[in-house]
Amino acid sequence: MFSMYLGVRLGYYKAMSEGGSINSTELATRTKTNERYTREWLEQQAVAGFLQVNDETAGSKDRRYTLPDPCREVLVDQDSLNYLGALPLILAGALRPLQALTEAYRSGQGVAYSEYGAECIEGQAGMNRALFLKEMGSTWLPSIADVHERLLEEPGAKVADIGTGAGWSSIAIAKNYPKVRVDGFDFDEPSIAMANENARDAGVDNRVKFHVRDAADPGLAGQYDLVVAFECIHDMSNPVGALKAMRSLAGAKGAVLVVDERVGEAFSTSKNDIDWMMYGWSIFCCLPVGMADRPSAETGTVMRPDTLRAYAREAGFKSVEILPIENYFFRFYRLIP
Ligand SMILES: C[S@@+](CC[C@H](N)C(=O)[O-])C[C@H]1O[C@@H](n2cnc3c(N)ncnc32)[C@H](O)[C@@H]1O
């Protein structure tokens, strides 16, 4: 993972994806890096199986390397659903406050999201970007008939996106529904700065506005046709407060959608890749972030359906419907007021 981090951060994979084979001097020149380090990295990547070598017997500086197409897709193509170039970034972010994290296990304090830094935000954004842009308007929202119809109608619908991070869910909704206006909310200023830049680059900043706000702020006002929260309720110290705010933003007519990890219904040690992965994020990032503000529900990434049902009940919702939308990582909940 951390050798991939160097490849992504230093632009090695990107430079190699621009075609043909390359030697260490050419790659170092193209990426403005040091030749000796670059040569060692190339050899490591070849031995690890990421890169192909044209002639193994050539002298180390003459040896030419290529990035095979399947690796190019995973490491460079940000628009592919198979893109994982953001994974080493988010992993580096998740481990950034390792000392503070270790101490938190002793003290019971949390670790603020800001301690995880820009790479956590950038990595999270990169992991979900292609998924949101490709699936939001083609399968996810169209499969909720009343919501889909409202988003297409005049007058243009209003959408609130809670815990939007770098904004890709808001941008995806706006791109797929040209009449819609979206307000994205997040309490993390650097995330909102990144979201504003992403909306500008995507050409939707006239219809998508981002705001630095706590999701549980009872002062959140407005009347929205759709209120969504992607992969963030489990991070919040006050998930019930956030759900209450979502309920009030949706009023009597709006729909409330929570999308969170597709973890098992109950704790089990029998093989479940999603729980395995989500516990990993939880012990390093989501649980300590959720414990940074007090009082805290102390949820963690592994928020099971019954936990969300209990939060929703406490927030005044009548029931929670699990929507039949297929996705490997996410479960889609519709909260009924
Ligand atoms: C795992 S990220 C998900 C970001 C984005 N929704 C996505 O799916 O890529 C969780 C987000 O929740 C935000 N968040 C956590 N607690 C919050 C709160 N109380 N109010 C607003 N945002 C919050 C964090 O700042 C972070 O951007």
Description:
- The protein contains 14 helices and nine strands.
- It has a seven-stranded mixed beta sheet, sandwiched between helices.
- It starts with a helix and ends with a strand.
- By secondary structure, the chain is α/β, with parallel strands linked by helices.
- Helix 1 (2-9) crosses helix 6 (87-95).
- Residues 113, 124-125, 128, 163-165, 169, 185-188, 191, 214-216, 230-232, 235-236 line the site of S-adenosylmethionine.
Produce a short descriptive summary.
Helix 3 crosses helix 4 and helix 8 (117-140) packs parallel to helix 10 (168-176). The chain has helices spanning 2-9, 12-17, 24-31, 35-48, 69-76, 87-95, 98-107, 117-140, 145-152, 168-176, 189-202, 239-250, 273-290, 305-314; strands spanning 52-53, 65-66, 158-162, 181-186, 208-212, 226-230, 255-261, 319-322, 330-336. The chain has 14 helices and nine strands.
Set down the secondary structure blueprint:
Elements: H1 2-9, H2 12-17, H3 24-31, H4 35-48, E1 52-53, E2 65-66, H5 69-76, H6 87-95, H7 98-107, H8 117-140, H9 145-152, E3 158-162, H10 168-176, E4 181-186, H11 189-202, E5 208-212, E6 226-230, H12 239-250, E7 255-261, H13 273-290, H14 305-314, E8 319-322, E9 330-336
Parallel strand pairs: 3-4, 3-6, 4-5, 6-7
Antiparallel strand pairs: 1-2, 7-9, 8-9
Bound molecules: S-adenosylmethionine (SAM).
